[in-house]
From TrEMBL, chain A:
One Pfam family hit: BPD_transp_1
Residues spanning the membrane: 27-49, 61-83, 89-109, 138-165, 185-206
Localization in the cell: Cell membrane; Membrane
Protein's UniProt name: Osmoprotectant transport system permease protein
Key word Cell membrane present: no
Organism expressing this protein natively: Streptosporangium lutulentum
Presence of the UniProt keyword Transmembrane in the record: yes
Topology versus the membrane: Multi-pass membrane protein
PROSITE patterns: ABC_TM1
Top-level taxon in the UniProt lineage: Bacteria
Keyword tags: Membrane, Transmembrane, Transmembrane helix, Transport
UniProtKB/TrEMBL annotation, chain B:
Name by which UniProt lists this protein: Osmoprotectant transport system permease protein
Keyword Transport part of the UniProt annotation: yes
Entries under Pfam families matching the protein: BPD_transp_1
Matching InterPro entries: ABC_transp_perm/SBD, MetI-like, MetI-like_sf
Transmembrane segments: 30-50, 71-99, 131-148, 155-175, 187-207
Length: 220, 223
């Protein structure tokens, strides 16, 4: 084999429309599980805080799900959700996101200092108002820290779906491997890392916007 | 269920170079070595950063960046670059996978120790290293072990991908089964990996019971 350059820019130029399509597919398959996971994890986390006996079993189940290899789960789902469909990839990723987010929600809510909670009660807040205006805002940094981990891992895990026919940018890995050709692999890795970095940055920004008081405290 | 009986009931699957024991040992070799290497990198670094407070931002950022690296892509690229034959190519992505949880949990565990406790230790005349070894590490032990457990489980379940580039491990049952549409083998391999991950989970539970001092676990249970 002749000395193959790590990246052949002409290949990227010629295949850009394909790469763009894969990128879009990748974003959808990573984003939907994160959003769904958060939507499910919030009520489950709330329930886990209100009824403490519920928390351990929930986390136990989540831990078991988290320890299943993504590749194996994709394969088990094929007979149910079909080969090379988005659903096959998105279902396990949703569960992985939940596995990270439920403990984050519970940790965030239990980290609210007791005197803050009691002040809200003393000021006559209803439980719902206390939750929305006091407890959730204080929990935001911890929840968002969990969300960052979930988002970044989800973006990177989508690529494993390529082994069952639908992995967004992960398809480039399979393609490069089958042709023993570096460029698609490098392109795939770089785009996934960039995508994860952008998602991470957006979430950091969201945290700054959602918790203005923490900035004031740091400056003081 | 019939698939499982077919897979685990077949005596051919229990012996030879393609048998369950061989594959299991290969899997343990990849995972164990990767975890060991990741520990050698991440534990001292996490302890040092947590103790001195230097380079915290760098550690957090690089840990998150490592989380973003797609294992499959890294694996095929490194194998193409280095060639097959050794297990080095499979170790690099797995180590990259295991370092972030260990590093972040160690750092946050050490940094999260009650400052009063640290001051008290210094006040009693302990020196920096002694404070770290006798006070900070034991107090942070539950978090450090949690990081190790998460890393171990991720490594065990992701090591399946190694089979895609022709290396061994339990992933062979999954990947080969998928290629030949042999569902009993695929599901059987998946079940084996899941069981292994579960055993790792339980193992860490036991380690936790031994390594975490009763004072610390009691304090945690009260809170």
């Amino acid at each position: 084999m002749t000395e193959e350059p790590l990246v052949r820019w002409d290949w990227i130029g010629r295949n850009w429309p394909t790469i763009q399509g894969l990128l879009e597919d990748h974003v959808v398959m990573a984003l939907v599980p994160i959003v769904l996971g958060l939507l499910i994890a919030l009520p489950l986390g709330l329930a886990g805080v209100r009824w403490r006996w519920l928390y351990q079993p929930t986390v136990g189940v989540m831990n078991v799900i988290y320890s299943l290899p993504s590749l194996a789960v994709f394969i088990v789902l094929i007979p149910i959700t079909g080969l090379a469909t988005r659903t096959t990839v998105m279902v396990p990723l949703t569960f992985y996101a939940m596995a990270v987010l439920i403990p984050a929600v519970v940790d965030g809510l239990t980290s609210v200092p007791d005197h803050v909670r009691q002040s809200a009660v003393a000021m006559g807040f209803t439980p719902l108002r206390r939750l929305l205006q006091v407890e959730l805002p204080i929990a935001v940094p911890v929840v968002l820290a969990g969300l960052r981990v979930a988002a970044v891992s989800s973006i990177s895990l989508v690529s494993v779906g390529a082994l069952v026919g639908r992995g967004g940018l992960g398809y480039l890995f399979i393609d490069g491997w089958q042709r023993q050709f570096y460029t698609p692999i490098v392109v795939g890795i770089v785009l996934i890392v960039v995508l994860a970095a952008v998602a991470d940055l957006l979430l950091v920004l969201a945290q700054r916007l959602l918790t203005p008081w923490s900035r004031a405290r740091r400056a003081a | 269920m019939n698939w499982l009986i077919e897979f685990f009931g077949n005596p051919d699957n229990w012996s030879g170079p393609d048998g369950i024991p061989t594959r299991l040992l290969e899997h343990l070799e990849f995972s164990g070595l990767s975890l060991l290497l990741a520990m050698l990198i991440a534990l001292p670094l996490g302890l040092w950063i947590g103790h001195t407070g230097k380079g915290a931002l760098f550690a957090i950022l690089s840990a998150n960046a490592a989380r973003a690296l797609p294992t499959l892509g890294l694996l095929v690229l490194i194998v193409l670059l280095m060639g097959v034959g050794t297990i080095v190519p499979v170790l690099i992505p797995l180590v990259a996978l295991a370092v972030p949880p260990i590093l972040v949990n160690t750092y946050e565990g050490i940094r999260g120790v009650d400052p009063d406790l640290r001051d008290a230790a210094y006040g009693m005349g302990l020196r920096g290293g002694q404070v770290l070894g006798k006070v900070l590490v034991p107090t942070a032990m539950p978090l450090i072990l949690l990081g190790l457990r998460v890393a171990a489980i991720q490594v065990v379940s992701t090591a399946t991908v190694a089979a895609y580039v022709g290396l061994g491990g339990l992933g062979r049952f999954i990947v080969d089964g998928l290629a030949t549409k042999d569902f009993p083998s695929t599901i059987g391999g998946a079940v084996l990996v899941a069981l292994l991950a579960l055993v790792v989970q339980l193992g860490f539970g036991l380690v936790q019971r031994v390594l975490v001092s009763p004072g610390v676990s009691q304090r945690l249970s009260i809170r």
